[in-house]
Amino acid sequence: MTDPSPADIPAKEFRDALRAFVGTCSVITVGDGEEASGLVVTSAISLSAEPPLLLACVNRNSSSHPLLEKYGRFGWSSLGAGHQAVAERFSGFGGAKAAARYEGAEWETAVTGARLLKGAPTAFDCTVEEMIQRATHSILIGRVQAIRTTPGQGALIYWNGAYRGLPA
User: Fold this and answer.
1) Would you give the distance in Å from CA 122 to the centre of its chain?
2) 123, 109 contact by CB (below 8 A)
3) Got the DSSP string for 69-129?
4) 28, part of any domain
5) What is d(CA 119, CA 12) in angstroms, rounded to the nearest whole number?
6) pLDDT tens digits for range 7-32
7) Which CA distances in Å does 37 have to 1, 19, 74, 120?
8) Which secondary structure element, helix H or strand E, spans residue 17, and what is its range?
9) Residue 1 pLDDT
10) Does the residue 168 lie in any domain?
11) Band of the pLDDT at 60, cuts 50, 70, 90?
12) Of 15, 38, 57, 78, which is most buried, counting CB atoms within 10 Å of its CB?
């Protein structure tokens, strides 16, 4: 068997194969006022405990990407079992864009001014440490400035093309 070249693997086939991964759902919030936006990420992981750093991959064509560069701060809220509607709005279901994505949920302003989802299992207030561009995405590295936790919220996962709540 020979190794395939990148041209041998169609993008759709690759994306469809990635749906077999179970991804934890988080919302990244960025911007203020009418410039507020955000997105759901399933590519979120811890990078380092000392110093506390998080890592996510953000499509460079997303409306949030230039805001991350402009504002230099963001909120990172993991989603609980009851947050499917939040995930759908931040994924653009129903046409929600920009500041409209925040409707229907309660938010708090964190130390940096970023918004965190009230009732999130865990939420991080972050500053942009670095954005590394690779292909269609940027690897976003965030330095954690503050943490909020809400026990007993379960988790929201993305698997096989659908959101699924896992009770606590």
Assistant:
1) 13
2) no
3) HHH-EEEEEE--TT-HHHHHHHTTGGG--GGGGGTTS-EEE-TTS-EEETT-SEEEEEEEE
4) yes
5) 35
6) 688 888 888 888 888 899 999 999 99
7) 45, 25, 10, 18
8) helix 11-18
9) 45
10) no
11) very high
12) 38
Taking residue 121's Cβ as centre, other Cβ atoms within 10 Å add up to: 23
Amino acid present at 66: P
Provide the pLDDT confidence category of residue 6 given band limits of 50, 70 and 90.
low
pLDDT in tens, 87-144: 999 999 889 999 999 999 999 999 999 999 999 999 999 999 999 999 999 999 999 9
Q: How much is the pLDDT for 132?
A: 98
Structure tokens at 89: 């709005």
Query: And the tokens for 116?
Result: 């965190």
Beta strand 155-159 with 73-78: parallel, antiparallel or unpaired?
A: unpaired
Report the number of distinct structural domains present in the chain: 1
Question: Is 94 inside any structural domain?
Answer: yes
Question: Does residue 32 fall inside a structural domain?
Answer: yes
CATH number, domain with residue 129: 2.30.110.10
